[in-house]
Amino acid sequence: MRLLVTGGAGFIGSHYVRSLLDGGYGAAPDTRVTVFDKLTYAGNRDNLPAAHDRLDFVRGDLCDGDLLRELLPGHDAIVHFAAESHVDRSVAGGGDFVRTNALGTQVLLEAALHSGVERVVHVSTDEVYGSIDEGAWTEEWPLLPNSPYAASKASSDLIARSYWRTHGLDVSITRCSNNYGPYQHPEKLIPRFVTNLLEGRKVPVYGDGRNRREWLHVDDHCRAIHLVLAKGGAGEIYNVGSGNELENLQLTERVLELCGADASMIEYVEDRKGHDLRYSLDDTKIRERLGYAPQVPFDRGIAETVAWYQDNPMWWKAAKHRADTEQAAGAV
Ligand code: NAD
Ligand code: DAU
Fold first, then answer.
1. CA distance 180 to 303
2. Is there an atom of ligand 1 within 6 Å of 62 CB?
3. Is the pTM of this model over 0.85?
4. At residue 331, does pLDDT exceed 70?
5. Contact at 8 Å (CB) between 281 and 239?
6. Which CATH class is domain 2-184+215-243+277-295?
7. Domain limits of the chain?
8. How remote is the CA of residue 122 from the centroid of ligand 1, in Å?
9. Nearest-atom index, ligand 2, CA of 127
10. To which H or E segment does residue 36 belong?
């Protein structure tokens, strides 16, 4: 199988590619991967092996249809991770989000249609549903995204479905909860807090810290994506969750504990605009129909993740200081 992975230099995409090349998720040993990535601030070529006989790397923009039409023939399937992914950045300015997530997805799917690609997995997010005070979303829930990020992801999710319904392209969609693990950009909650503490700085908790998220290890998300690639139905949507729901303050306490710090290192800061209170997925469908079950217990996953940032300062320092400078300049 020859697979094109968009966004394969980012957090989740690179985990997926490294695992596949190592024979993970039951991938055939002859699986070849082309990573297609623009290498924005969030992408890092060093997240992937420097050289590998089954890996090709192409730097390019999702919105470049000519390049995609040249590149795609010969690929059997696409796993589409590439996106602008950070909610705070979308609050500061939504333009790149609409361009990459909505338009870029349409350009990619159009190129796939004309290049004989047989199968596409579109990686969406639970944020397309909005915020839920109690209970959990099933795949039939209406989409009510709140941030420009979530709205642009909802657009791409609907565009993906439309290419199945209109053109018969074999597209499946995954909607996953919050991921954590190694190689996540230090702009996101867990790596931001861990790396702040490693630098002796406080951790900025937005608002009162009562917002709730459902945390899943990146390896379990990637396992689910590969399962959907192999066994998912055309036009089908699959929620991917963990059931591991935590208040931000509970998670913060765990991170503080693992870093040997205490609550005096918490700094309550101004809330995120339009901050979603709670996300919760009902992922019965993927569990019952495809046999998905998360395998990484949170206690182990979070301890290993904190240790990874402690052991790899060279990986996060440059990105962190770039993000801090942008934030100080009000760009984020
Ligand atoms: P990330 O920001 O770490 O990586 C995104 C990658 O996409 C980067 O390598 C970047 O260079 C690339 N990219 C951005 N714009 C591009 C463009 N125009 N053309 C080509 N490449 C481009 O994101 P992530 O956290 O790894 O998320 C990957 C996907 O998973 C996204 O679609 C996101 O919406 C979805 N998702 C993320 C989470 C999470 O918790 N991180 C949860 C559910 C779903
Ligand atoms: O739910 C899936 C989504 O999870 C993905 O689609 C997004 O790509 C991903 O970024 C993530 O979005 P969140 O907004 O939930 O993640 P983030 O790490 O930015 O924030 C998690 C929670 O922590 C949220 O309630 C905001 C809060 N927060 C975040 C940061 C960065 C803080 O309190 N302080 C912070 O510094």
1. 11
2. yes
3. yes
4. no
5. yes
6. alpha beta
7. 2-184+215-243+277-295
8. 11
9. 1
10. strand 32-37
